[in-house]
Amino acid sequence: MRFHWFYRTNISVPELISLSSDLEDAGYYSVLLTYHSKTHDMLLPSFGAASNSQKLKYMIAMRTYAISPEYMAMICKIYNEVFPDKLIINVCSGDLQQGESSLEDIVFIRDLIDNNEKRREYTKQWLNNFKKLAIKNYFPELIMGGHSDRTKELCKEFNAINLSAGTLYKEYYVRENKIISDKQMVEFSVVIRDSDEEALSFVSDHGVDGHKKGDDLRWTIYGTKETVKAEIKKYYDLGVTDILISYLSGDNNISGIHQMVKELILEEKA
């Protein structure tokens, strides 16, 4: 099982270097850095923080309409020349978030990407061109999030890891006509406290930025360290190859999450 850390907000190069050291020590495979058109770019900070002395990779969220396949292939080439096999691309069709004006800011192609279905089709064509260009130099690991069969089929076509919310993946897994990727990632938040009751109280009062308090109960694994570890291990036999872990806003025990991941990795190796 490979573990990944989900970092949701802006981060400076020095801060990312410090975070990378903690994640490397815990044994994470990569750190996901997100995309929002009204905040900072995360690709350049990752380049500034990357190191060939560490195994940690950088998973960069990138919306296909925001960059050409040609330029993305050029970036992958130089990134890999300096930091071999350290870049992962989280390919996003582009669900817009609150406050973004991406459709208004785009040139010429707005009518081609103004709904989710169009953006998925645009992404398929984008990936076709990107693969032709990147395969000559460096074709990175790809992640694609989504629960639709169309997205899962795209993952199979382009050998990408499919990312699903943990609870929704469990619900999907019991379907007779399910499409399970050979590379399947699930994502959930984790809260660790000294008791299950204390963890539940924290989750009920906190949440991911932009969510109402308590909304994250369904999307969070919480409890003592042993409770959380037992819940995570339930995914091991469900076709899951990768786990993406995030934290809730205001949590002061992130180091406890990293320690738990370190123990899970060591236990699996034993």
Describe this structure in words.
- This protein is an alpha/beta fold and 270 residues long.
- It contains 10 helices and 9 strands.
- It has helices at residues 13-26, 43-49, 69-82, 102-105, 116-134, 149-157, 166-173, 196-205, 225-233, 254-269; strands spanning 2-7, 30-33, 57-63, 87-92, 141-145, 161-165, 184-192, 220-223, 242-246.
- It has an 8-stranded parallel β-barrel, surrounded by 5 helices.
- Strand 3, helix 3 (69-82) and strand 4 (87-92) form a beta-alpha-beta unit.
- Helix 1 crosses helix 2 (43-49).
Quaternary organisation of the protein chains: single chain
Overall helicity: 40-55%
Number of domains: 1
What would you report as the Rg, rounded to the nearest angstrom?
A: 19 Å
The CATH architecture designation is Alpha-Beta Barrel
Order of helices and strands: EHEHEHEHHEHEHEHEHEH
- Could you tell me the number of beta strands? 9
CATH class: Alpha Beta
Global mean pLDDT: 89
- The strands making up the biggest β-sheet line up spatially as 1-2-3-4-5-6-7-9
Name the CATH homologous superfamily.
Answer: Luciferase-like domain
Gross geometry? globular
Q: CATH topology, which one?
A: TIM Barrel
Alpha-beta content class: alpha/beta
Q: Main β-sheet, in a few words? A: 8 strands, parallel, barrel
The end-to-end span amounts to: 13 Å
Low-confidence runs? none
| Strand coverage percent | 15-25%
User: How many separate helices?
Assistant: 10
